[in-house]
Amino acid sequence: MIKTKTANNLTDENSKENGKDFGSKPNMQKNLPYIIEGGDIAEMASDWNEHKKYSRETIKNLQRPDSPNLDRSKGLQVNPYILRTDRRKEMQVIPIYNMEASAGLVHLLDNPNSQNPIDYISIPNLPNCDGALFVTGDSMYPLLKSGDIVAYKNVQDIKNDIFWGEMYLVSLDMSGEELVTIKYVQKSEKAGHIKLVSQNKHHQDKEVRLSKIRALALIKASIRYNLLY
User: Fold this and answer.
1) What are the residue ranges spanned by the domains of the chain?
2) Around Cβ 202, how many Cβ atoms within 10 Å?
3) What is the sign, positive or negative, of the torsion defined by CA atoms of 33, 37, 221, 188?
4) Which CATH architecture is the domain 78-225 placed in?
5) What is the C-alpha separation between 118 and 2, in angstroms, rounded?
6) DSSP 8-state class, residue 203
7) How far is CA 211 from the centre of its chain?
8) Which DSSP string corresponds to 122-191?
9) Exposure on the CB side of residue 61, measured as CA atoms within 13 A
10) What is the pLDDT of residues 116-150, one digit of tens each?
11) I want to staple 86 with a disulfide (CB 3.0 to 4.6 A). Which of 12, 65, 72, 127 is the partner?
C-alpha cells in the first residue's frame, strides 16, 4: 500500500519511538521517500552512516509529499486537480482497481462494490475520490506516464455535469466495443459532439458524439511513485 504522510505526522510518530528523533539512522531509512527538500542522496546516505541527527527546525523544512513540485527523482509525486467546488478530505483510503479484471470502465463505475481492489492508497488533502487506476498508453505524456496512478470521481450525469477543459477517464462505444482512454474533454463546434484532446501532441484531437460516451470519470489526482535505487 502506498501511503503518504505530512512532515507533522512524521514528527509526531517518530517522537514516540523510544525518544528517537527523526534524524536517527533507523528512522531516516524508514522515511526514505520523504527526503529533505534540496537534499542530496549521497549526502543523506553519509548522514545515516554517521548517525547524524536533524533538528525539529530542519524537519519543518520537509517538502510536503502531496506537493506537485516534489522532485520526481526522490519518491512520491502527487498532482491534485482541484475544482473550486471541491471539498478536500484530510485523509481517505482510495481503492486501486484492475480495470481489465473488472470487465471495463462501465462495469467498474456501475458496480464498484462488486470489485476486489488490488491495493489501496492513502493520500491527504484530496477531494473525494471513488477509486484509482493505473495509466496505460502515452496519450497524456508527459503529464501522465504509463504506470502512473490516477484517482477519479464518477460522473453520474454525463450530459450536464462535464467541466469543460478538465481531464477525464472516458469510455467510448466503438462499434460495440469499449475503448477507454484519458483525455481532456472540450466543447465541440459540432452539435451533439465533444472534443477529446491529448496532452501528447503526436495524438490528434478527436470529435465524438456525446451519445457514444458510455461512462465518464473526472480525474482528481495523478500519482507517480519513483523508486530509489
Assistant:
1) 2-65, 78-225
2) 8
3) negative
4) Ribbon (2.10)
5) 12
6) S
7) 29
8) EESSEE--SEEEE--SSTTTTTS-TT-EEEEEE-S-TTT---TT-EEEEEEEETTEEEEEEEEEEE-SST
9) 9
10) 999 999 888 888 999 999 999 999 999 999 999 99
11) 127
